[in-house]
Amino acid sequence: MYFADILFLMLLLKYKPKTFRESRYNPQDRKFFLLMALGVTFFNLALAEAARPELLTRTFDREILVKNIGTYHYHLYDAILQTKSSAQRALADGSELSEIENYVRANQKEVNDELYGLAKGKNVILVSLESTQSFVINKTVNGEEITPFLNQFIKESYYFNNFYHQTGQGKTSDSEFIIENSLYPLGRGAVFFTHAQNEYKATPEILTEKGYYTASLHANNKSFWNRDIMYDSLGYQRFYDSDEYKVSEGNSINWGLNDKSFFKQSISHLKRMPEPFYAKFITLTNHFPFTLNEEDRTLEPYRSNSKTLNQYFPTVRYTDEALERFIGDLKRDGLYEDSIIVLYGDHYGISENHNSAMSQFLGKEITPFESIQLQRVPLIIHVPGQKGKTISTVSGQIDVRPTLLHLLGIENDDYIEFGKDLFSEEKLEFTVLRDSSFITKDYLYTMDTCYDKKTGAATAKDSCEKYLEKAKQELDYSDKIIYGDLLRFYEQP
Ligand code: GP9
Ligand code: MN
């Protein structure tokens, strides 16, 4: 409808030219007018880009886009994006998938029989820990533990301390995508936006087929990251968005509802769900710029030249306390013993802009090697009745789905996925990040340099050589699946 008037005027001009009163403008005036129009457009775009960096590449929220560039331009932009991806989709065919399927099958490893089906029929509680990186675990600031609850919880759970986030520009949404599809996100843009209409076989869909009730709970507006649309494609039965929460000034900080109120209110949603359920909780308080009210602060900020890093620790602590209460409530309501609980960090919180403060905190220089090591986020899996264990296998978010399905006793060879079961002794220690950096048991490759993990020093490229191709291959296959919407050709064996 936005463009209908232009079409209408064009038709009118062609068939009823008399409708128009002719007025002549000299070429100079026309040029001036055009330049003015373009100038204003680009000026507006620059302002929008300054307020929201990477606005157009990240496309993180339709509302924010419309607010910044206007409805008309938004539709233009959306039409271009849409045309591009439908062209790629139209040109794809099923044969491309067979090649990928062969690759996936050839790389599938023996599963660990001992743990297979250990949590069969249990509820699944998945918690996305906003911006939580591994470097806060078991660490102190001003002599105080940053995450006392998590440090304790880890002792009763499987804790993966070499687990990397693999997100790109889609941040939280990318982490959701990887964890539930065991595919890589895209190199540019957020797949939640660009390919929300694709065919997927995500965890919520698989578990729905197995009789689970599946829901995502996140107290933000439902269109953020296009979740309302994407969740349908992932097979969620229900999305509890901000409309399902009582959000007021009193219980909000930073980006919205605080984590303590979020979990507290979520418990009543959870109690009403039919069991077994698969429920994903997305926390929000520990989000840049990490602001917190004075009275909510139980840890003093760090002291360095980075306000961001200084404020980060108290907000991490806040979420840690929110989690402690949540787990307490699960115990009180009898849900704890019937649920497997998976906690994971969604992506980094402290960017490379804060390297000098980070270096002060960690007591070492932040080299490109260290920067990649800082991309580790916690993965904690609590299975009732199981003792705690720290597992140091090199792993990534892509491995969560196969690991979870394995614990639930669901065969993984029915699905196309790039991740591996983390309990398998044969798991190849190899994780690719979205920027093609990769990590193996002994080496780390980033920015065209191979590092020896033991020393953190650059080493001969040969040591990384044999994985270089594999890293590119995996990302490339995954991209092909998404751009060509190839899973629509997949027939489950
Ligand atoms: C918003 C939350 C944060 O709903 O998921 O998104 P992020 O900026 O971390 O991608
Ligand atoms: Mn996030």
Name its key features.
493 residues, alpha/beta, eight-stranded mixed β-sheet, 17 helices, 19 strands, 13% strand, globular, binds (2R)-2,3-dihydroxypropyl phosphate, binds manganese (II) ion
What can you tell me about this protein's structure?
- The protein has 493 residues and is of the alpha/beta class.
- The chain has 17 helices and 19 strands.
- It has helices at 4-15, 27-51, 55-58, 62-69, 71-91, 95-107, 148-155, 171-181, 191-194, 203-209, 227-234, 259-271, 307-332, 355-362, 368-373, 400-407, 462-483; strands at residues 123-129, 140-141, 144-145, 158-160, 163-164, 213-217, 238-240, 252-253, 256-257, 277-282, 339-345, 379-382, 389-391, 395-396, 430-432, 438-440, 443-446, 449-452, 458-459.
- The chain has an 8-stranded mixed β-sheet with strand order 7-6-10-1-11-12-4-13, with helices on both faces. Strands 15-16-17-18-19 form a 5-stranded antiparallel β-sheet. A two-stranded antiparallel ribbon has the order 2-3.
- Strand 16 (438-440) and strand 17 (443-446) form a beta hairpin.
- Helix 4 (62-69) crosses helix 5 and helix 12 (259-271) runs parallel beside helix 13.
- The relative contact order is 0.16.
- (2R)-2,3-dihydroxypropyl phosphate (GP9) is lined by residues 171-172, 218, 220, 224-225, 282, 284, 287.
